Amino acid sequence: MAETGQDLKKAASLLNEGEVVAIPTETVYGLAGNAFSEKTIRKIFEVKKRPLTDPLIVHVSNIKAIEPLVDNFPDLARKLFEAFSPGPITILLPKSVKIPDIVTNSSPYVAVRIPNHPLTRQLLESIDFPLVAPSANPFGALSPSTAEHVQKGIGNKIPYILDGGPCQVGLESTIIQIVNETEIRILRPGGISEEKLMVFAEISQLETMDKQVVPGSMFSHYAPQKPLLLDALTEVLKQYSPNQIGLLAFGLKSILIPIENQFMLSESGNLEEAAQNLFQGLHYLDSISVEVIVAANIPENGLGKAINDRLKRAAAKRI
Ligand code: TXA
Ligand code: MG
């Protein structure tokens, strides 16, 4: 089992030695390592059992720290970082030679973000290299939004988890591409909604071919162990008894299944709150003695879009 605590010095010295450390961010926990060390990066891929073809996001503490990592820093990217950072936005930028090819799977673009968590910000300021950090879960499994989730998923393979409490946003960062000075493309919906981005740029639609650009958008992903079905309670009740069903509820609980088998994302229908609770709810329902998980319908506006994206991928596994 990994040691867990808030010891920033310990986390920094492990990272300096080329070790991997789980770190808290506002979105989900990341499995961090020195972005300049190929050996460390290989360790990250091994721990997660992640294919080398799936590139990693580079995390830095401020906008200035991005400059040496990129060959070109378009004004629009700078504006977006100024508006939303530190926070859940990741932007693809032309990489400089400082970024090893293994980080990007040899793509000329590197994904960069400035995470918003006080512990991780302090950690980044105390070391002299950026951190690559994919979500700290086994590849394809549910993302971790608490230190306990990390412990359960990969705790036996890493030396230390920096415990920063439950993640406040709860959904991974929104990943965007800069199309030109006025236009962006969303590669992965996430913690910054389309509505917020629209204030700064036109949003062009993702073409089907481009979907392969982001392997995190592979269809089955973020998946619990148990089958997950979307908005299908009536159907599922024909095949399972109520105590075999776990419900990821939104707004209202159901009178049809036991209350202890239900996890409420947001009683008041608040999408930020639902996002924050999403992975916690899926981890919980995956751990209790039910056989199938049903997710309630979530509206498709604001963060609802990213929540539905994760739910669809989580559900794709068994269909
Ligand atoms: O909120 C987040 O972004 C979290 C926290 C830990 O920062 N990180 C995260 O990393 O979600 P990960 O590796 O689980 O998902 C990152 C996604 C992957 O699907 C990857 O394919 C894509 O970003 N990505 C990373 N670098 C890329 C690049 N150079 N080009 C295209 N896609 C890239
Ligand atoms: Mg991930």
Average residue-wise pLDDT: 94
- Bound small-molecule species: threonylcarbamoyladenylate, magnesium ion
Category from helices, strands and their pairing: alpha/beta
In which order are the strands of the major sheet placed?
A: 1-8-2-3-7-4-6-5-9-10-11
Number of domains: 2
Gross morphology: globular
Computed CA radius of gyration, to the nearest angstrom: 19 Å
Helix content: 25-40%
The CATH topology annotation of the largest domain reads as DHBP synthase
Number of strands: 15
Largest sheet: 11 strands, mixed
Q: What is the H/E order? A: EHEEHEHEHEHEHEEEHEEHEEHEH
**Which homologous superfamily in CATH is the superfamily of the largest domain?**
DHBP synthase
Low-confidence stretches: none
The CATH architecture name of the largest domain reads Alpha-Beta Complex
Number of helices: 10
For the termini, the CA-CA separation is: 34 Å
Into which percentage range does the β-strand content fall? 15-25%
Question: Given this structure, which CATH class of the largest domain is correct?
Answer: Alpha Beta
